[in-house]
Design goal:
It is a single chain. The protein is α/β, with parallel strands linked by helices. It folds into three domains: 5-37 and 224-330, Immunoglobulin-like, CATH 2.60.40; 44-222, 3-Layer(aba) Sandwich (Rossmann fold), CATH 3.40.50; 332-414. It is built from 13 helices and 16 strands. The chain has helices at 61-73, 97-100, 103-111, 124-136, 158-168, 185-195, 208-221, 323-326, 331-354, 358-375, 378-394, 400-414, 421-427, and strands spanning 5-11, 15-17, 23-33, 44-51, 81-87, 91-95, 144-151, 173-179, 199-202, 222-233, 238-246, 250-253, 262-271, 276-284, 290-303, 307-320. It has a six-stranded mixed beta sheet with strand order 6-5-4-7-8-9, with helices on both faces. Strands 1-3-14-11-12 form a five-stranded antiparallel beta sheet, with helices on one face. A five-stranded mixed beta sheet has the order 2-16-15-10-13. The protein is globular and about 75 Å long.
Length: 431
């Protein structure tokens, strides 16, 4: 019987230069859930936490949220547990899991959301805490336990939001939705990343129902739970940096490697057919020519209705004195290396913009655009070119148009783009 998860370890090159003091090698560790693992679709245990501050009345945002929640209610099964929380200066549970399957009750509650006496500010931590409490009432490893937070503004007590995620991340994931340009995108990104949820930027309020549908489809597609990759490095091999490479790109930091040479990376729940991957930048020591195992790796996960399982994969390379062999590259790995590099350039450009270094920022964005053009990633090219144009016009990120293009560029660049096999051949050519 085939494993429920396909797992492989790929190196950017199968050959390492024996005489190199610090040979840089990129390693992709990728897990792909094949499909439903035997337990069928997992029931939901979801709390939808909605910002109902005063700004949510702008651009009909609240109206689109109402439409999205009605869609959600119309797609529940009797096994699903869903609650709805509204927050501003206070938080209030407006639909309990017991009432969520009654579509008329949901419709009535959500239609009256603007009548709630909960103030006009933005206390997101209060809303999150209320949502967590509702999820905990039906907390079960056999369910998909998630809090979905939608907001359009800056919140008080950001640290409290982060603390809530860190305290509950082992049992509950958090997906975040930012509407407009006034919210703190770094906060929402971190809340989702730290708990293996999803972050959504919503530039057009009319997209809110579609984003809700995307979130629901993703939850329905989960086929394995609590996946994590364990790595044991060979002696002398060092990790320079680590990035989550798919389905989204973000830094995972530089791990501290202990005496046992072991590192672990959490992937969270995996949707069928969607790669969950980690990209390592390794530094290898010089060795005599010959085949060497540089790491051992495994992915462990839970198959709903079946139990725990795992897959193992060792990675070997051949040390050689032939430089022409070391110049041959794996197209799949180098494609992701380039996508990560572009994301780093975009992030660095943003830092330079905030520091007032416009010339440096425009150069960095120009370099990123050259990379997306070479890759044939037209969406990222268009998004970054729009940001560059705004920066040249305004010399700042403070205008609404500039902030919108920045958030759009972030969303596109962070989303991993899968190139077709023919395009990948270009990445495999010797340098």
């Amino acid at each position: 019987m085939a494993d429920a998860v396909a797992f492989e370890a790929l190196a950017s090159s199968q050959h390492v230069l024996s005489s190199a003091e610090n040979f840089v090698l990129y390693v992709l560790l990728e897990a792909i859930a094949r499909g439903k693992g035997g337990g069928g679709r997992l029931p939901l245990n979801l709390s939808v936490v909605i910002d109902r501050s005063g700004s949510m009345y702008d651009e009909q945002r609240l109206e689109f949220v109402v439409e999205a929640v009605k869609f959600l209610a119309g797609n529940l099964t009797p096994q699903d547990k869903v609650s709805i929380v509204a927050f501003a200066d206070q938080a209030k549970v407006i639909v309990t899991p017991e009432k969520a399957t009654n579509r008329d009750a949901v419709k009535s509650a959500i239609d009256d959301i603007d009548m709630l006496e909960i103030g006009g500010g933005t206390q997101m931590a209060l809303g999150m805490r209320a949502g967590i409490d509702e999820v905990k009432k039906n907390l079960d490893a056999s369910r998909l336990n998630r809090v979905l937070v939608l907001t359009d503004g800056q919140t008080y007590q950001e640290t409290a939001c982060l603390d809530l995620v860190n305290q509950n991340r082992d049992n509950i994931s958090f997906s975040t939705m930012g509407v407009g340009v006034e919210f703190n995108e770094k906060l929402l990104q971190q809340l989702a990343q730290d708990s293996h949820g999803k972050y959504h930027f919503i530039g057009n309020p009319g997209d809110i129902p579609n984003i809700f549908e995307d979130e629901l489809q993703g939850l329905r597609a989960v086929s394995v739970r609590n996946a994590h990759i364990d790595v044991a490095l060979s002696q002398g091999v060092q990790v320079r940096e680590t990035f989550r490479a798919s389905p989204e790109i973000y830094a995972m930091g530089s791990p501290i490697v202990g005496d046992d040479r072991k590192i672990s990376y959490d992937l969270g729940d995996l949707e069928a057919g969607v790669p969950g991957s980690v990209l390592l930048t390794l530094v290898l020591p010089p060795r005599k020519p010959g085949v060497v195992r540089i790491l051992q790796s495994s992915v462990s996960y839970d198959i709903p209705g079946v139990g725990d399982s795992s897959s193992n994969c060792d990675l070997t390379v051949e040390y050689t004195l032939d430089r022409t062999l070391t110049s041959k590259r794996n197209g799949r790995v180098m494609n992701l290396v380039d996508q990560v590099s572009i994301a780093k350039l975009q992030a660095k450009a943003e830092e330079e913009l905030k520091a007032g270094n416009i010339d440096r920022a425009t150069r960095l964005l120009g370099n990123a655009i050259q990379g997306t053009q070479r890759m044939g990633n037209s969406k990222a090219t268009q998004a970054l070119a729009g940001l560059l144009d705004q920066v040249k016009k305004t010399q700042t990120l403070q205008t609404k148009a500039a902030k919108t293009t920045l958030l759009q560029a972030q969303a596109v660049v962070r989303k991993t783009q899968m190139l077709d096999p023919e395009a990948l051949k270009e990445f495999g050519k010797p340098e």
